[in-house]
Automatic annotation (TrEMBL):
NCBIfam families: sufD
GO biological process: iron-sulfur cluster assembly
Domain annotation SUF system FeS cluster assembly SufBD core: ranges: 172-400
Domain of life: Bacteria
This protein's name: FeS assembly protein SufD
Organism the protein comes from: Marinobacter lipolyticus SM19
Amino acid sequence: MKPAPTLSAAFLHPAGQSLPEPLLALRKQRGTALVDMPLPTRKTENWKYSSKYLKLTDDMAISLPAEGKTGSGLAVPGYKVAFLNGVMLPEASDYPDLDGISIERFGDLDDVEAASLADRMDSTLNSSSDKGVVQMARLNSARFEDGLLIRLKPNAVLDQPLFIVHEVNADASGSAYPRIFVDAGRHSQITLVEEYISSGGEPVMVNTVTEFTLGDGANVTSVRLNMEGENVQHIGATGVSQQRNSRFESHCVGFGGPLRRHDLQVRLEGEGAECKLNGVVVTQGKQHYDNHTTIEHVAAHCNSQETYRNIAADQSHAVFNGRIHIHQDAQKSNADMNNKNLLLSNGAEIDTKPELEIYADDVKCAHGATIGQLDEVSLFYLVSRGIGRREANVLLTMAFINELVEQIPVEQVRDTAHTRLNQFFDQTFEGA
């Protein structure tokens, strides 16, 4: 019998050493735990549809240098932190110095702050390697070379969105491991925008982790925009823990690549907590995108609403796996999940798997999933009224996702998403 593939030892040797001792110790501990880590296969349940797209060569184990050309000088309508190849660039960043709000590099923390952070890292993520489950966020914990700690004291409010621009420079093959930890104190507020872009054409892998902890009454909006190139494998994880009466809102917009993967895990741990998760994915050519979401209703009287929509063209492949887990003590939970999918060609594939796991008896829960194609009757109706067939295709396809795009609370992100979607339509419906 052929042995199961394991992570190459080349991935167990981080390069950067400019971290405080508690974070270096954490990284070493996580690295030791990765020895002989199984790589996902078709039999790995949470990688069933994506394992064949994962290509981790030894060349990719090399940490990409935080130097070279960067486009992160781009102006944004708010505060900005620039990352290049997983390392923060202070000279290209412009963030606030406000009472109650602290934004610091991991490398600038003192040992006491670093020890406190080390105790909390990975706390929002299920990083288990149980049979049938592989979480690649574990690799980030063993390899991160830098990171950003954002702390909001009670009642602190960030008055503008904070843009974090993650750029990978792929002039050579390698990998990058950006890390962000957001600690939102009681009744604090922040909008965080993460943009992922790339330059260069060599094959690289980006493995990113963002964690949010929300105190009582905290309000956090997370916007995630993935626009990396065709040479970039992207494996991301976002973990969220929420306390009483807190609210977390997520808007994810993703454009496909050789491998795109995002695991979003939310735990509603305090009564009255709410979360809203929206996601839009488009794929074309032979691209792949996989969204895995988990919402854990741990406490009573919590609400969750989840809406994801996928569009796949050509021979591309999109995946959605959404799981809602209602724990035994989570009475009066209200949870709704909806996933709609649109196939634009006979060669495209979409796999959807909504899951409900309920252990409480006084709850309101619903989930649904649909997969279909553009309605020929609607196309005929538009064409018969003088609209060209290409324009009719674009109108119907955009209508399918526009509701979610328009809910993104940051105008520049909406505009950027519309620009990229128009490019997608131009390529997909060329000659229609």
